[in-house]
Write a structure and sequence with these properties.
- The complex is a heterodimer of chains A (717) and B (119).
- Chain A is of the alpha+beta class and 717 residues long.
- Chain A is 64% helix and 9% strand.
- In chain A, helix 11 runs parallel beside helix 17.
- Chain A is rod-shaped, with a radius of gyration of 60 Å.
- Chain B has 119 residues and is an alpha/beta fold.
- In chain B, helix 3 links the parallel strand 3 and strand 4.
- The chains are: A alpha+beta (717), B alpha/beta (119).
Chain lengths: 717, 119
């Protein structure tokens, strides 16, 4: 029991903590079957270190006169293991990080042999101290130390030197990350060296002896830094477990320390005989301390230290992208937001959304082509490096150009709309499967947002463009409409005035001819009468022509108003026919009106136009039927129409002229025109009227036998 | 003897009308525009006014408006024009025209017969 207190409680605590830490870290190092020489070196280092500590500890345990020999062996062992520890340090620096630096095998073998020899001899030598008795270290002075002590010390410095030299040689060959790793490990080593020199050489020169016994613990400085440099840039899973373990480690160590404190306090204030009964309380106190300390940390406290992804934050931010609409307004805003999220939560340097435009395929054609056949996320370190040579080379270049580690393609309906690229992680870590998964879950939302944005902006452009066009066209339309209206009005007025102006002189001609023909202003001979009649008739014709032309143009312009009145067709037609009786009788033409007694239809039509139509048809019939001929008007019902026939026994119309009969200015062959007056516009107008009233008109005729004009009008019961 | 005021700006046509009406035994007065016609009316009260629509200075419509504003009139008004648009006819009717005759339809003697029918 007494022995324990020849080591101060600080020493004991330090030893304990050092051992536990080493065990834990070492345990993590063996985690997974990743084999590398650096790791092996470090593992063996930790093993030797524990043995070193252990043997030193037991050296003190047996530091009683009766067990001094055992103590001696343990001390020697401790020196031996100390040598090995230094050897593994050198080995670590040689193997880590991997590089082309090479020490010839010969030198390496020499070093191994030397170390091995030193180890063996140290265990069996009595030359570490001058005397075989172990003196309490507090009294160690220069005279006590034997030659082998200084040999060990030299080896110590040598190994330091070699390690530093190796580190320096490697430094220039390596990339920045590797350089950083070396730096960290070197710093650890330097700290170790400094502390050793300080406590064992410098301070004793001034007579200050502190922490000399605890010197081995200082190598932990190296161990931790080496470990850190190993895992910092790689081994994410190690980092994860370590990050979580660190909390427990710290809590545990704290608990141990607290328990020890607790114990000491009681030892000071209470006599030793009752101490045994306090053990459970010490244990309880330790447990309480453990839980209390561990509450200060949560699983993500050390994440940033290790450069680990803050996954919760990442997920929450991803959710934000999914939900918020503020980023649907502009592409730059979306880009910025996405970039922020990823840079912060993944600890990466940059993240960007690239929109694929028409010329983008020129900038990275290989990537675009790659994504034509592959639809998943491209992780540089995975797919590219495992791909075939040609793909690898072509893609690597472009990825490097974009500074991309991960390239997420954004597809919409099988077409590539853009990429979402992520840069290197802070410590060049790999992207974990979780992160890739989270990314792939984000992709559809991102694509949606992106396409919505693109579509929006395109749409807006289109809309603006089309609106401009529309405005212009509208303006053109408005102005041309105005012009047309004006023109229309002008034409209207012109026609009206022109008709008036044309007809006035005609009326005068007609008038004076009539005067002369009346013979009230002098008698005329036959020839004079004849000539005057011609003048009169032609004047009349001209007036009629003008009227007809106006009517045709009015009809074509849609200016003629068609009224809708209910007409009792049978009596109406009968009246019209009757008006022709006298005329026909004078020419000895029989005129008949036929209609079934029971059929007395009422139709909705324009009576004025019907009258004009009938006048025209009857007039034609009269004109072209010779004396003793007959004209028959009949009214029939055919389905939903009434049919009116005007049949004559006149000269008929030859077949080849029948198709032209309703055209303007057609009146049959020239020789007929002279015999029968008329403008040739009548049938054209008649047809127009009939069709406008909703019916159709046609002709049946045979030359020499007669003609029948038929037209229909819609009739609803 | 019936009195008639002929208002027509075309000289030949005017003369033709005057001859026609005189032959049939009317006493005629002439006005070559609306203003002249109004002046005539100050001294000559006809039984019929034979009114052309298209005239310079004061046209037929304006003349009719003036007559209408004077309230009840002792004479008939016959509008005589080549205008045939429905709106022209209704316009004239609204302004108090008793009969609307189309120039080109009638020879002067027929015109006179129409007038006689009206009286």
């Amino acid at each position: 029991m007494d022995v324990l207190f020849s080591m101060t409680w600080i020493s004991q605590c330090l030893y304990l903590i050092a051992t536990i830490a080493t065990l834990v870290l070492g345990g993590i190092l063996v985690h997974k079957n990743l084999v590398s020489e650096a790791r092996r070196s470090l593992l063996l280092f930790s093993l030797c270190f524990i043995l070193w500590l252990g043997s030193l500890y037991f050296g003190f345990v047996f530091l009683k006169p009766e067990t001094s020999q055992i103590s001696l062996w343990f001390v020697r062992l401790s020196y031996g293991f100390g040598t090995l520890v230094l050897f593994w340090i050198v080995s670590f620096f040689y193997h880590f990080p991997r590089s082309n630096f090479h020490i010839p095998l010969l030198w390496r073998v020499i070093f191994w042999m030397g170390t091995g020899g030193l180890f063996v001899i140290t265990i069996f030598t009595s030359r570490i101290y001058h005397s075989t008795e172990i003196i309490i270290p507090q009294q160690v002075g220069k005279d006590i130390l034997g030659p082998w002590y200084f040999l060990s010390a030299s080896y110590f410095l040598l190994s330091f030197g070699i390690s530093m030299w190796i580190a320096r040689m490697k430094y220039h060959q390596l990339r920045s990350i590797e350089k950083a790793k070396i730096r960290i490990a070197s710093v650890g080593l330097a700290v170790f060296l400094t502390l050793i020199l300080l406590t064992n050489v410098l301070l004793p020169m001034f007579g200050i002896i502190i922490l000399q016994l605890e010197s081995p613990v200082f190598s932990l400085a190296f161990f931790v830094s080496a470990f850190y440099s190993m895992i910092k840039y790689r081994f994410l899973d190690v980092k994860f477990s370590l990050s979580r373990a660190l909390k427990k480690i710290i809590a545990f160590c704290g608990a141990v320390l607290a328990a020890y404190l607790f114990y000491l306090v009681f030892r000071i204030f209470i006599s030793s005989s009752f101490l045994i009964y306090w053990n459970p309380f010490i244990l309880a106190f330790a447990l309480i301390a453990y839980f209390w300390i561990s509450r200060f940390f949560d699983s993500s406290t050390f994440h940033r230290f290790f450069g680990l992804t803050n996954f919760e934050y990442f997920s929450s931010q991803v959710e934000r992208i999914k939900q918020e609409d503020e980023f649907s307004h502009s592409l730059p805003a979306l880009q910025k937001h996405v970039s922020n999220i990823f840079c912060k939560s993944l600890g990466i340097r940059f993240a960007k959304v690239i929109v694929l435009e028409k010329n983008s395929s020129r900038t990275f054609p290989n990537l675009v082509r790659y994504f034509e056949t592959h639809q998943d996320i491209l992780v540089k370190k995975e797919q590219v490096l495992l791909a075939s040579e040609e793909i690898k080379n072509s893609l690597l270049k472009e990825l490097k150009l974009l500074q991309t580690e991960v390239c997420v393609p954004l597809f919409r309906l099988q077409t590539l709309v853009g990429f979402f690229i992520l840069g290197k992680k802070r410590f060049d870590d790999l992207y974990t499967a979780n992160e890739i998964l989270a990314l792939s879950r984000l992709v559809p939302y991102l694509t949606l947002r992106l396409t919505a944005l693109l579509y929006n902006s395109e749409l807006q452009k289109e809309v603006a463009h089309k609106t401009e066009e529309l405005k212009k066209k509208n303006q053109e339309l408005v102005s041309s409409h105005k012009k047309l209206k004006k023109l229309d009005q002008i034409k209207d007025d012109f026609l009206s005035i022109a008709s008036h102006e044309l007809r006035t002189p005609m009326t005068v001609i007609k008038g004076y001819s009539d005067f002369l023909l009346s013979q009230r202003f002098g008698s005329l001979n036959d020839q004079q009468q004849d000539f005057l009649k011609k003048i009169f008739t032609n004047a009349e014709n001209l007036i009629l022509l003008v009227s007809k032309m106006l009517e045709v143009s009015a009809l074509e312009a849609g200016k003629i108003k068609f009224e809708k009145k209910t007409v009792a067709l049978k009596p109406f037609l009968k009246d019209i026919v009757e008006e022709f009786y006298l005329v026909c009788k004078a020419k000895n033409i029989s005129l008949k009106f036929q209609c079934e007694k029971s059929f007395d239809p009422f139709i909705i039509t324009d009576p004025e136009k019907i009258k004009q139509i009938m006048t025209n048809l009857l007039g034609n019939a009269y004109k072209f039927t010779p004396e003793k001929g007959s004209i028959a008007v009949s009214l029939l019902k055919i389905n939903k129409y009434v049919k009116i026939d005007v049949r004559d026994t006149g000269i008929g119309i030859p077949l080849e002229e029948q198709k032209n009969i309703f055209k303007k200015f057609q009146q049959g062959k020239n020789y007929l025109r002279q015999a029968f007056s008329g403008t040739g516009l009548g049938l054209n107008i008649t047809k127009g009227f009939v069709e406008h009233l909703g019916g159709s008109i046609w002709i049946e005729s045979e030359k020499g036998k007669g003609t029948c004009f038929s037209f229909t009008l819609p009739y609803k019961k | 003897m019936k009195k008639i005021l002929i208002v027509e700006d075309n000289l030949d046509l005017h003369e033709m009308l005057r001859i026609a009406f005189t032959l049939e035994g009317f006493e005629t007065q002439s006005g070559f525009s609306g203003t002249e016609a109004l002046e005539c009316l100050q001294s000559f009260i006809p039984d019929i006014i034979f009114l052309d629509i298209m005239m310079p200075h004061m046209d037929g419509y304006q003349f009719l408006q003036v007559i209408a504003s004077r309230g009840k009139r002792p004479f008939r008004i016959v509008a005589y024009s080549n205008l045939e648009r429905p709106k022209d006819i209704t316009n004239a009717r609204n302004l108090g025209v008793d009969l609307f005759l189309k120039k080109s339809d009638y020879a002067p003697m027929e015109l006179v017969q129409q007038i006689k029918k009206l009286l």
